[in-house]
Structure to design on (249 residues):
């Protein structure tokens, strides 16, 4: 990839032919401005570096956000298929699945998409970009999140089934399915206050839906007893710890 900077009319052909043509804007001629893909209005080279860093950070955020959306959905599908084969019927109804997506996809994924990684450095960002960020790295993150999410929910469902009714087991699995995804989201961006706040709001909303009698019945759930919350908490903690461990590989 070739980038060319310039500000004169004689620079316009090279700016136009470059992969990224950059005009230094304060003294740039109209020809240079029109030929450029990017116009730097303050004529500072450092501004170009900042723009590259911000663009590379955007690809890292896109990868993390897509991994949350696609990996979480694959995990939900895996959980539904496995428990359906075990139980002979669906473990979560349509309203519950919609609730899972509302709590795990909208606020947390959007918060990650609009905020750059808090700890990433300019040197680390050299490895980012559409080819690297959306290639094997994204596929790996999707499969990892899907496996951890499905595993946590399945374990919670089996333990819930052994200690309560089918409806209670489904509710325990619902809580574990949402909480495990939120925990993994915090592993990815736990140092970003906006992400932490969105995850907290989602979990409080989940607890309110589950524990409010009329609302819980509307979603096909039942309020959980302490042991049900302990099962869900244990599965969530294990999933979050495993995700943190796998992230180091």
């Amino acid at each position: 990839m070739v980038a060319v900077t310039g500000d004169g009319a004689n620079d316009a052909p090279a700016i136009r032919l470059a992969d990224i043509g950059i005009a230094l804007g304060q003294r740039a001629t109209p020809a240079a401005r029109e030929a450029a893909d990017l116009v730097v209005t303050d004529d500072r080279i450092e501004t170009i570096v900042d723009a590259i860093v911000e663009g590379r950070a955007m690809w890292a955020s896109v990868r993390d956000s897509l991994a949350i959306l696609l990996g979480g959905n694959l995990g939900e599908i895996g959980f539904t298929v496995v428990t359906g084969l075990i139980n002979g019927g669906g473990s979560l109804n349509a309203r519950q699945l919609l609730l899972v997506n509302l709590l795990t996809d909208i606020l947390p994924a959007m918060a990650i998409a609009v905020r750059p990684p808090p700890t990433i450095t300019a040197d680390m960002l050299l490895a980012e970009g559409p080819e690297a960020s959306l290639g094997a790295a994204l596929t790996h993150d999707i499969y990892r999140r899907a496996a951890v999410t499905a595993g946590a929910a399945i374990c919670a469902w089996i333990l819930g089934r052994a200690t309560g009714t089918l409806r209670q087991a489904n509710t325990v699995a619902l809580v574990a399915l949402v909480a495990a995804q939120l925990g993994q989201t915090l592993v990815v961006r736990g140092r970003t206050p906006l992400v932490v706040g969105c995850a907290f709001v989602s979990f409080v909303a989940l607890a309110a839906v589950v524990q409010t009698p009329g609302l819980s019945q509307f979603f096909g759930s039942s309020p959980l007893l302490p042991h049900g919350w302990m099962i869900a908490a244990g599965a969530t903690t294990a999933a979050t710890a495993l995700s943190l461990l796998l992230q180091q590989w």
Notes: The chain has a mean pLDDT of 86. The first helix runs from residue 12 to 17.
